[in-house]
UniProtKB/TrEMBL annotation:
The lineage of its organism: Bacteria, Bacillati, Bacillota, Bacilli, Lactobacillales. One of its GO terms (molecular function) is metal ion binding. The keyword Metal-binding applies. A divalent metal cation 1 binds at residues 65, 103, 224, 227. Homohexamer. One of its GO terms (cellular component) is cytoplasm. Keywords: Metal-binding. A divalent metal cation 2 binds at residue 64. This is GTP cyclohydrolase 1 type 2 homolog. Pfam families: DUF34_NIF3. It comes from the Bacteria. Belongs to the GTP cyclohydrolase I type 2/NIF3 family.
């Protein structure tokens, strides 16, 4: 299978038109005409992830987060990021990213998160014109839980040591839940307007948190790394596409590297 065939399939599933206009999605590095046989999925492309790819003879890396948020200003290989690019080129590895387009896609990142949170009757939180795609999701828990109970569930679900909870009352019952993968702090008023009792998102800003308390709302921040859920889902998607298209692929697997930069003490 050629890398461009897999790229085209990803873009059919999560069209580039759904992405934020400044998001550097798509082909990050490599030859789209390269024959690929071993595919690895990851949340982030970091040096340790590339080392894993080299060790496992990977041809193609699918990443949720773009590798090149900021263009390289030079190719000084003493800079770790540049050295990583050089290693990818040396080993002829194609890197491709689907970020905000996968966030907004139907049955994409935010639907995966909503399913993991066990939400029912799920709809886009910030819908596009078609009503089926868009950022974030909102849905119902089967039965009410207290803020503390649900926050504990979220902590355990995403396998983090702690979650940040912004709430005036940890014993308040909640049932209608909004979720937005990644940095969704600016959109908490949208969750309130949509009738959410609580909002799950990441990278919440200190002063915005004060606004949440003033609005007597609830936010649970389990860390941006919650989007690592994409790794296993992309393995499943690529495996399905392989069967549908009769692609010759030797292996598709998720990176075992935890790229969360935070340590909780």
């Amino acid at each position: 299978m050629l890398a461009c065939e897999l790229m085209a399939q990803i873009e059919t599933y999560a069209p580039k038109s759904l992405a934020w206009e400044k998001d550097p999605i798509g082909l990050q590095l490599g030859d789209p005409q390269k024959e690929v046989r071993r595919i690895m999925t990851t949340l982030d492309v970091r040096p340790e992830v590339v080392d894993e790819a080299v060790d496992r003879h990977v041809d193609f890396i699918f990443a949720h987060h773009p590798m090149m948020f900021h263009p390289a200003k030079n190719l000084d290989l003493s800079v770790p990021q540049n050295a990583m690019y050089a290693k990818l080129i040396k080993h002829d590895i194609v890197v491709y990213a689907a970020h905000t387009n996968m966030d907004a896609a139907a049955n994409g990142m935010n639907d995966w998160l909503a399913a993991a949170l066990q939400l029912n009757n799920v709809q886009p939180l910030i819908p596009n014109a078609d009503g089926q795609t868009g950022l974030g999701r909102i849905g119902q828990l089967t039965k009410p839980q207290t803020v503390k109970e649900f926050a504990t569930f979220v902590r355990d679900l995403f396998q983090v040591k702690a979650v940040r909870v912004i709430a005036n009352d940890l014993q308040r019952p909640i049932q209608r839940i909004a979720v937005l993968g990644g940095d969704g702090g600016d959109d908490y008023p949208t969750a309130i307007a949509a009738g959410a009792d609580a909002y799950v998102t990441a990278d919440f800003y200190y002063h915005t948190a004060h606004d949440v308390l003033a609005d007597d709302f609830v936010v649970i921040d389990p860390d941006h790394h919650m989007e690592a859920i994409a790794k296993k889902h992309m393995v499943n998607l690529i495996t399905d596409w392989q069967q549908e298209n009769n692609w010759v692929i030797d292996d598709v697997f998720a990176s075992t590297i935890n790229t969360d930069p935070y340590t909780y003490i």
